[in-house]
């Protein structure tokens, strides 16, 4: 049985696509009066407040037409993934080629499930990460989570 979010996700994707941004993530959580639909958007060069306002209006209108969650109330939040975003898809890794990242793996590489290094490339469903002592090719399917290492100052 599909969840209510699965049934409206295509409408959310369509509403976002028409706004010049890409859909990064959609989550629905909570229950009753505290239900939240969180739509996360991204685009090259970053997301502005105006982008979030436009997407919120478009997504809200699309969902109101379909009576999302059978008339139960919810809060719609639209935001960017932020600087500390999760690396989820191949496009996320392509965006940070040449920068440092930390990867948590489902399959140990060299006895380690956490790998830190510079993303050297991303193609054909795998990333190459240079740890400083070796270059490792990791299939995207083996990455549980990843984050860019941000350095300040």
Brief synopsis:
The chain has 153 residues and is an alpha+beta fold. It has 3 helices and 8 strands.
Report on the structure:
With 153 residues, the protein is an alpha+beta fold. 24% of the residues lie in helices and 38% in strands. The protein folds into two domains: 4-79, Alpha-Beta Plaits (2-Layer Sandwich); 90-148, Ribosome maturation factor RimP, C-terminal domain (SH3 type barrels, Roll), CATH 2.30.30. It has helices at residues 4-17, 49-65, 90-95, and strands at residues 22-29, 36-42, 75-79, 100-109, 112-123, 126-130, 135-139, 143-148. The strands form two sheets. A five-stranded antiparallel β-sheet has the order 7-6-5-4-8. A three-stranded mixed β-sheet has the order 1-2-3, with helices on one face. Strand 1 and strand 2 (36-42) form a beta hairpin. Helix 1 (4-17) packs across helix 2 (49-65). The radius of gyration is 18 Å and the shape is elongated.
Task: Tell me the layout of helices and strands.
Layout: H1 4-17, E1 22-29, E2 36-42, H2 49-65, E3 75-79, H3 90-95, E4 100-109, E5 112-123, E6 126-130, E7 135-139, E8 143-148
Parallel strand pairs: 2-3
Antiparallel strand pairs: 1-2, 4-5, 4-8, 5-6, 6-7
